[in-house]
Design brief:
The complex is a heterodimer. By secondary structure, chain A is α/β, with parallel strands linked by helices. Chain A is about 35% helix and about 25% strand. Chain B has a single domain, classed as MetI-like fold. The chains are: A alpha/beta, B mainly alpha.
Chain lengths: ~250, ~230
């Protein structure tokens, strides 16, 4: 990558939960347009790492930069950073008391101060891209899991973020719903969105990722383009992990 | 023992003359109690010890003492204090109605604040995190996410407290107020017919409770419309 300024930069980042070290010396640089897949066993720190990027978790060692802004405690407008970083959660986390279209409008209205009419247009635009405009006036509970997750992606996109974080977006879904969510993510990748995805969908990693990162014990053990990562993993731990998730 | 129907027909209209006062006590202390409860609950969950401790102490004291004792303390006790007699609040404490409203308000607020806290704690953390990730500020998350969801969650327990408050208003009769129970007691003193009078009084309270239940069920259906799967 030749871009001068990486979009996201993590330098020697560490994080503890009490005595447990969740992240150890994480160094990661993500350029605009790059698509990163993060994988690793549970408890390896994948989620914690991406949650540090929009400061849902605070790191306690090292530095994190979003563009030129460093995430620190005295950051005045953390929400200005957050609106540039979209996030999709494993459990969708739609606002249950609002209709789908209102879910997509709320942050636009409150954070971007968009007019009601424009917020509605933007919302419908992204619902169409997620192929669910007909669900606009339903409540989240009335949708299937796959539909809810597509709404969650659309909701994040409404804020026109610079980068999208996905925290195991398909792990809570029935198998037949996984592909409809991955389709939306693949479309997004084709449009050049910068993405960091924590996922075990190795097919997605192969076809979309520029780089695959393997984490264990809070550390990045290996990172490589997918052909190399899957074809010739360097570490024994990576090989073991891949053999376990690819054997079926 | 015979059951004298004509006594009831005679007493019922008289007791119903007190229904206005019963409602005034219920609505006024219900409303003021809710406002105070929201305040106490916000103090309790503030995470700041000098706000949270007084709130916890308040809840403990008001839940730990009988409401009848609280009414007596406000009605008989407060007027003994000079600074209350000299304050602008004196007109409230001089009046038994004022005392009853104050005592009922303080009592219900303690219970309701805990009911509301239950609602707030019941809001899914993930939903709030999603709001946070979208850039909503803390107060925006509280107003647009926590409040509506918590209201829905707290409503059944809150309804319980409203019904309980309705019946607590009967205690106001102990400090001379002529609401329904007060009138009933007077009639009993005149007629020596406690059985007929109190049974019919009980039925009136049951009818009121039934109406409040219906109203609450309606509000619950409205607030809970997003919890029903089929559209």
């Amino acid at each position: 990558m030749t871009n001068a300024q990486p979009l996201i930069q993590m330098k020697s980042v560490g994080k503890h939960f009490g005595d447990f070290q969740a992240l150890k010396d994480i160094n990661l640089s993500v350029s605009k347009g790059e698509r990163i897949v993060v994988c690793g066993p549970s408890g390896s720190g994948k989620s914690t790492m991406i949650r540090c990027i929009n400061r849902l978790e605070r790191h306690d060692e090292g530095q994190i930069f979003i563009g030129e802004i460093e995430l620190t405690d005295d950051l005045k407008d953390l929400n200005a950073v957050r609106r540039e970083v979209g996030m999709v959660f494993q459990s969708f986390n739609l606002f249950p008391h609002m209709t789908i279209v209102k879910n997509l409008m709320l942050a636009q209205r409150l954070v971007r101060k968009t007019s009601k009419q424009e917020a509605h247009e933007v919302a419908m635009h992204y619902l169409e891209r997620a192929k669910i405009p007909e669900q606009a006036n339903k409540y989240p509970i009335q949708l299937s899991g796959g539909q809810q997750q597509r709404v969650a992606i659309a909701r994040a996109l409404c804020m026109k973020p610079e980068v999208m974080l996905f925290d195991e977006p398909t792990s809570a879904l029935d198998p037949e719903m996984i592909h409809e969510v991955l389709d939306v993510m693949v479309d997004l990748a084709k449009d050049g969105m910068t993405m960091i995805c924590v996922t075990h969908e190795m097919g997605f990693a192969r076809s979309v990722a520029d780089r695959v990162i393997f984490m264990d014990g809070g550390e990045i053990l290996e990172q490589a383009p997918p052909e190399e990562f899957f074809g010739n993993p360097q570490r024994a731990r990576t090989k073991l992990f891949l053999s376990q998730i690819l054997q079926h | 023992m015979s059951f004298d129907l004509s006594l009831i027909l005679d007493a019922l209209p008289k007791m119903l003359m007190g229904i206005g006062l019963t409602f005034q006590l219920l609505i006024l202390s219900g409303f003021l109690g809710l406002v105070l409860a929201i305040l106490v609950m916000l103090m309790r969950i503030s995470g700041t010890w000098w706000l949270s401790w007084p709130a916890q102490a308040y809840i403990y004291v008001l839940r730990g003492t009988p409401i009848l004792v609280q009414i007596f303390i406000v009605y008989y006790g407060f007027p003994q204090l000079e600074f209350i007699r000299e304050s602008f609040l004196w007109p409230v404490f001089r009046d038994p109605f004022g005392c009853a409203v104050v005592a009922l308000t303080l009592n219900t607020a303690a219970y309701v604040s805990e009911i509301l806290r239950g609602g707030v704690l019941g809001v899914d953390r993930g939903v709030l995190e999603a709001g946070e990730a979208l850039g909503l500020s803390k107060s925006q998350r509280f107003i647009y996410l926590t409040t509506p969801i918590a209201t829905r969650l707290a409503l059944p327990a809150y309804g319980n407290d409203i019904i309980s408050l309705l019946k607590s208003t009967a205690l106001a009769s102990t400090i001379t107020l002529m609401e329904m129970t007060g009138i009933a007691r007077t009639i009993v003193a005149q007629t020596y017919a406690p059985y007929e009078i109190f049974v019919s009084l009980a039925i009136v309270y049951m009818i009121l409770t039934f109406l409040i239940q219906k109203l609450l069920a309606r509000i619950e259906r409205f607030l809970g419309r997003y919890t029903i799967r089929e559209s």
